[in-house]
Amino acid sequence: MDRLLVLCRHGESEWNKLNLFTGWKDPDLTEKGVEEAKAAGRRLKALGLTFDLAYTSALTRAQHTLALILAELGQTGLPEIRDQALNERDYGDLSGLNKDEARVKWGEEQVHIWRRSYDVPPPGGESLKDTAARVLPYWDAHILPDLKAGKRILVAAHGNSLRALIMKLEKLSPEQILKRELATGVPILYRLDAEGEVLSHEDLAG
Ligand SMILES: O=C(O)[C@H](O)COP(=O)(O)O
């Protein structure tokens, strides 16, 4: 029997809207973000999907997104595991700064390197490689065993913690994963085999 996994980046946050580096800071969703999360739940419901277990980060925007999706699915009591291993990458000294102002201060290219290189961390923060170094052991120790046990799993997390996971699931190179932008509130549906190898994946936009 195929295993089911859905990954979803949180809906638009207050700091996404203000164009601020966020990382481990903890803004909540905007009204638009709330709507995006509800739409994600309706999309999953329309496909007839239900879940046995949910994982999320220690941050409000991901937890709130999960709660809104579960409400749409009629699954508000679903067991939910929160862990900071699934948090957004730590943006270090950039956290709270405006992304356009940072480009003016440090230059377009440097800011792009901090945001989208694989292994160059922003000052005081985590690169995607560093993020993967905490997300993937968590996947191996917790989420993958639950999946192998046949649980249908929903993960509500963040652009870069999910990128780290997607890179492994889809066997992408650092170049490939860095070009992959995750839209807020768009679920990605994976079907996996009994060993956790991906059989198919589909973005559930719109
Ligand atoms: O933490 C943030 O600022 C965003 O959620 C992700 O940022 P990015 O688009 O620079 O990866």
Can you put this structure into words, describing what you see?
By secondary structure, this protein is an alpha/beta fold. It has a single domain, classed as Phosphoglycerate mutase-like (Rossmann fold, 3-Layer(aba) Sandwich), CATH 3.40.50. It is 43% helix and 15% strand. Strands 3-2-4-1-5-6 form a 6-stranded mixed β-sheet. The longest helix has 21 residues. It is globular and about 50 Å long. Bound molecules: 3-phosphoglyceric acid. The site of 3-phosphoglyceric acid has 9 residues, from helix 7.
Summary keywords:
isomerase; globular; Rossmann fold; alpha/beta; 2,3-bisphosphoglycerate-dependent phosphoglycerate mutase; binds 3-phosphoglyceric acid; six-stranded mixed beta sheet; 206 residues; 8 helices
Spans where pLDDT lies below 50 across 5 or more residues: none
- Count of domains: 1
Shape: globular
| Helix coverage percent | 40-55%
In CATH, the homologous superfamily goes by the name Phosphoglycerate mutase-like
Summing up helix and strand content along with how strands pair, one would put the structural category as alpha/beta
The biggest sheet, with number of strands, parallel, antiparallel or mixed sense and barrel status, is: 6 strands, mixed
The H-and-E topology, N to C, reads as EHHEHEHHHEHHEE
CATH third-level topology: Rossmann fold
Query: What small molecules are bound in this structure?
Result: 3-phosphoglyceric acid
**Spatial gap, N to C terminus:** 28 Å
- Rg over CA atoms, rounded to whole Å, is 16 Å
